[in-house]
What does this fold into?
Amino acid sequence: MKIADRIQQIPPSGIRKFFEMVIGMDDVISLGVGEPDFVTPWSIREACIYSLEKGYTSYTSNWGLRELRDELSLQMESDYGIYYNPEDQILVTTGVSEAIDLCSRAIVNPRDEVIVVEPCYVSYNPCIVLAGGKPVPVSTSISNDFKVTPEQIKEKITKKTKAIIFNYPNNPTGAVMRKKELEEIADVIVEYDLIAISDEVYDRLTYEGRHTCFASLNGMQDRTILLNGFSKSYAMTGWRIGYALGTPKIIGAMLKVHQYTMLCAPITAQMAAIDALKNGKENVTEMVQEYDRRRRLIVKGLNDLGLDCFEPRGAFYAFPSIKNTGMTSKEFAEGLLKEQKVAVVPGDVFGKSGSGFVRCAYAVSRNEIKEALRRIGNFLQG
It folds into this structure.
């Protein structure tokens, strides 16, 4: 049987490959999958349990629970000073990954080009391809703290360019862009009449200063599809709750795809998300403080081992260069797992500009980080 050409163009997820390799192995320290080691805070879990006890097991509106959308609207206005109407500008999705797929299919026509800022989350390019579009990569580098510049974007724009997708704080590098830098990108978006897709799932995991929401910039709310979720900030990866914010026209188009493919996010997870927004801020603050301690530990440790490591200012990833080892990213990751039982992800699965790097998620305990660093040192010594 013949497989669709689009599917054959897409490689399997490089992240999930290493996740599957780790399953069943003993004594492995996994710095591979971007998943908090914290258990979801109790009040959030309790809200889910209570919802089950009360019999909340039905479908919800395709849009998501109205109370959840109301809370999201209040949060956006309180945190960033922008208002989204819960009636037609907020769509609850099954994780941010579904939201990426929905917005790609909602706006991309065959042969449309979408600029993708790399290194990037592994879903961006495949979702654009599945929508019939063409991903156009823009590579960032450690020399510029993995920040994209207006000049780089302009070089890639053609008559076919429809949108640009970026993610700050960034997965896999931990890079953050400041308000002035984002305003320069916004000027390019206006000049060339583009749609911005801003994935801000790590917005609360920042260590220096305050996160700038791209849609809050002058003139950007109507040009931006804003994606976010609960997985990272609230330690709710398995709950699969995300959301998309945008104009009624674009969110309505995304809803059409969502209606036929996903219907709605699980009601119990939506009930838990409501509690997260109402009562979870203190838990988030505590987790961020602990991530910050881990961040400083792993960055210093990698640099001390001779692996040049950019200092991440958001998310929970370190992205050290392994170029001085003479190994490719894949060789390094596979060798480290086989010989020392430490799992990291090859940087090139996040785009060509990730070649020569590996991603290390510091969403594990400090003791595990110390042991992982010891094992990496042994591996480097051969």
Summary: Residues 281-304 form the longest helix (24 residues). The chain is about 40% helix and 15% strand.
